[in-house]
């Protein structure tokens, strides 16, 4: 990824684009194609993956993976001064080439929202307002075609969250997105961020997880409970203080969801998150099994969010019978 990003920057800087190339046919190729300004091919491939509705092994639709592979460069911090000029210029160039492209509008609106979100944290409100205003104009211009695309709704939710609109507007947007297509993860993730931009409202994420299951249960079982949780739990650090109970997580539902997710989309299963929660719920067997699956890839950052610096070590010792409990 780093090498690909460096190549993209070098190509943009030098203007040295290959004159002969193979047509892109896989979502993993879109980053290089974007750097080479092959916009028509990018748009054609996006239309194709939207129609086909194929999924990656982790459960995401190829159209979601596609968008994740597009415009990022050497620095993935939207507040960084080394990041923004490149992304700003690249997405503006795409819009200039394809002014009627809903995809170009969505991609630029998303990077504007990301930049605005980071700048809001440091109080650069005048810039945030300008970024949000442009993002809204772009989405409005792409509405007729975009409103049938779950990713358009996802970006709309991301922009609403940065803008800080009334909660009722966010709820309306969530229900509109779910009515169009409740199965992609991306709208649910951005809905979580929009519902609670500061992450303080701990009941928002569990409510959203339950709604996602309600709208997808027929074909997805309870897997969306774990998938939505995994996509946004890091945004709600206060949830860790009281993770289970009224207006919080339901351990039985969570465990069932992680189990179904592991069976249905094994690459989307996150044993560290499952294990960290199992330990807090006092489920020794599940904690041990999750740690065994994580093996050498146990992520301390995940465990730390749920129980502090020593959560992983305590839970590992407890699950093997060497300690009395996860919070001992």
From TrEMBL:
Signal peptide feature range: 1-22
Which controlled-vocabulary keywords does the entry list? Signal
Q: What is this protein called?
A: DUF4034 domain-containing protein
